[in-house]
Amino acid sequence: MQIQQLEYLMKVVECGSITRAAQQLFLSQPSLTKSISNLESEYHIKIFDRRPKGIQLTPEGKEFLYYAQNVLNAIRSLDKVFEDGFRSGRHILSIASQQFSFLYDLILQTYRQFESHSIHIDLLEADRGEIVEAVIGRTADIGLIVCSHIDARPFHWLVNDKNLEVHVIDYSNIYVSVGPKSPLYNAESVRPEELVDQLQIVLDMEDDTKSGVYSKKEGHINTHHVFFCNSLASCIHFLLRTDAFAFTQKWVIDSLEKTPIRSIPLESRSQSNELVWVKRTNEATSEVEKQFLHNLYNHFGNSIPPL
To answer: Rounded to whole angstroms, how far apart are CA atoms 241 and 201?
Structure first.
C-alpha cells in the first residue's frame, strides 16, 4: 500500500465516480481503477460495488475508508509538525489510569504550569489490563495502576515481558469499605474472618482478578457472592444499597468521603498495596511528563526517582 493510493481512494469517494475522480487527478480511468483494485487485492476486500449510476461503498469498504482517513490525517499531522524540522513546542500529557479523585487536581495543576504553552492532555480511565495495553499501544504514555500483594508478581512479569518500566509512587494498607446496611458499619477495625460469606464488590473487571477470586487466593473472602464492576459510581451504588463490602486503598477512600460509606482498616500484617506508574522502556520522559510526575510524588509527600 502507498499513501498515494489512499489519496486516490478518498478522491473517488468524494467524486462518487471513478471517471470524475480520474479527470480531477489527471489520471487515466484504467490507471485509477487499477490503483483501487490493487488495494482490494492487498487487503482481500471489496471496497466498491460498481453500479450503472456510479459506485457505492461496501460495508467493509466503509470501514476501510475510516482507517484510511485516519492514516492520511496522521500523515498530514506529521508533515505539519516536522516538515521544517521539529518546532511545534506543543506539550503532550497522555495518561491512562484507574479512577482516582486526586488525579484531576494534579492534571489541572500541571496544565496551569504549562498553560502559557501549547498543551494537549489526554486522560483515559480504564481497568488495569486496558491501561497496560494503552501504554504498549501508545494510546497513553503514562499508566497509573494499583498493584496488590496478591497480583504483584504476575503483574511485574507482564510488564517486564512487554518492555515496560514500573515505578512505585506510594503504599497503602487495605481498608474495608461498607455502607450503612453492613453489620460492620460501626466497627473500628475488621478481621478477615468477619468477611466470610458476605457479598464482595470488586472494583476491577480483569480476568486475572476474577480468577484470583474463584481460586480462593488470599485476600478474597467470598467466592459465591461477588459483584465485579469497573466504575467507582457503580461500586458506591451497590455499597449503599446492600450489606456488601469492598477492599479499598487510601487512594480510593478520597472518592468516598462525600458519601455515607465508611472505610475501616483491615487487620492484616501482610497485606498492602502499591500505587505505581508505568511507561515504555528506552523512551525519554518529556518536560510536561516530568512535571506531572513531580506533582504526583509531591502530592503523597514522596521524592521522585531519577528520570
So the answer is: 12
Distance separating alpha carbons of residues 215 and 197, to the nearest angstrom: 15
Cell representation of residue 32: 485509477
What is the model's pLDDT at position 43? 93
Q: Is 282 helix (H, G, I), strand (E, B) or coil?
A: coil
Domains of the chain and any CATH numbers: 3-82 (1.10.10.10), 91-169+274-299 (3.40.190.10), 175-270 (3.40.190.290)
Report residue 49 CA to chain centroid gap: 38
Note the pLDDT of residue 214.
Answer: 45
Report yes or no: 296 and 106 within 8 Å, Cβ to Cβ: yes
Q: What angle do CA 105, 111, 112 make, to 5 degrees?
A: 90
| 141 close to 289: Cβ distance less than 8 angstroms | yes
Counting every residue written for the chain, the total comes to 307
Beta strands in the chain (DSSP E): 48-51, 54-57, 91-97, 119-125, 142-148, 164-173, 175-178, 200-203, 226-229, 245-248, 262-265, 272-280
- Regions of the chain short of the pLDDT cut 70: 80-81, 83-89, 149-154, 156-157, 205-223, 269-271
Mean pLDDT over the full length of the chain: 86
Nearest of 185, 182, 184, 175 to residue 248 by alpha carbon: 175
Query: Which residues, other chains included, contact 11 with Cβ-Cβ below 8 Å and sequence gap of 6+?
Result: 21, 24, 25
Contacts of 79 (CB under 8 A, 6+ apart): none
Q: How far is CA 95 from CA 17, 143, 145, 167, in A?
A: 43, 6, 11, 15
The 164-173 sheet, strands edge to edge: 119-125, 91-97, 142-148, 272-280, 164-173
Q: Which amino acid is at 224?
A: H
